Input
Amino acid sequence: MSEQLKTVEGILAQAKTAAGEGADTLAIATARKAFRPEEAEVKPHLGKVAIVTGAAGGIGRATAERLHADGAVVVGMDVNPAITENLNSPGLSGVVCDITDQEAFQKAVENVAEQFGGIDIIVANAGIFKAGEYIEDLGHMWDLHLKINLTATAHFMKYSIPFLKQGFYPSVIIVGSRNFSAPGPGAAAYSVTKAGVTQLARVAALELAEDGVRVNTLHPDAVFDTEIWTQEALEKSAKRYGMTVDEYKTKNLLKTEIKSTDIARLISSMSGPVFRATTGAQIPIDGGNDRVI
Ligand SMILES: NC(=O)c1ccc[n+]([C@@H]2O[C@H](COP(=O)([O-])OP(=O)(O)OC[C@H]3O[C@@H](n4cnc5c(N)ncnc54)[C@H](O)[C@@H]3O)[C@@H](O)[C@H]2O)c1
Output
């Protein structure tokens, strides 16, 4: 294999030549499919282009870094401007984008395809979690959860699908939550959106299988090295269970602490050849939970 085909830039250059002068982004993405690097077995995502939302910190940042380490060119998107500093190395960059702004989000997705020649992996990870709002007191949190966690995920798919259909072993990953199968009181908005994205993923798996696009969901729980969990929230939750914070952190069947990097590794595997024949699946990553099992 030529040296040129070992980089995303090299693959893009070949695809542009093959597509011909004046070809549009989608035509180039289609041509690019012919130049999948053979060495991809060594690094499962070599030559692939990935987008991860909510990648300024927590699970999203760890995922962007993992996919990049596994060979992909990765663009993270986040409303938090820290993303541009946090993801800033060759082949790993961050773009400020509010995913509830449809026009800006679509443009940002299309820019990635234009810049790197296509899109192979998308990880719908951005999300918010605000608990303590009971149904009889539902306020603006309902709409906000729906907009960020659910509707923007559907838009993310919509904008990416034309490119994913032309991708290398394309994969869509949805970050769900243990809350989907084991909801708690005071978290209706969050739980409903996580149920929503899970169902969205199942329908997408049905719709996209004939184009070879796999769509899978993972359900994390209790990942404390993230911004979603403040020290105050952690202490409050631990107290509710009559536990110390350390006990609470490993309150699962395996008594293990789950880190962002654990979730990131699973996402990279689910996007790669290990899960080549899996679509429409849901995988818990929660240390084992008796309400889920
Ligand atoms: N941490 C956990 O225990 C846990 C458990 C289950 C599921 N999850 C899910 O994991 C995902 C990642 O969360 P995390 O735990 O890493 O928390 P986090 O708060 O560190 O990450 C979420 C990211 O989404 C970004 N975001 C929020 N609104 C946005 C918008 N409108 N546009 C663009 N970006 C936006 C935030 O700025 C943040 O960087 C979420 O979907 C969450 O529901 C987390």
Observations:
- Residues 141-164 form the longest helix (24 residues).
- The beta strands are 49-53, 73-78, 88-89, 92-96, 121-124, 171-175, 214-220, 282-285.
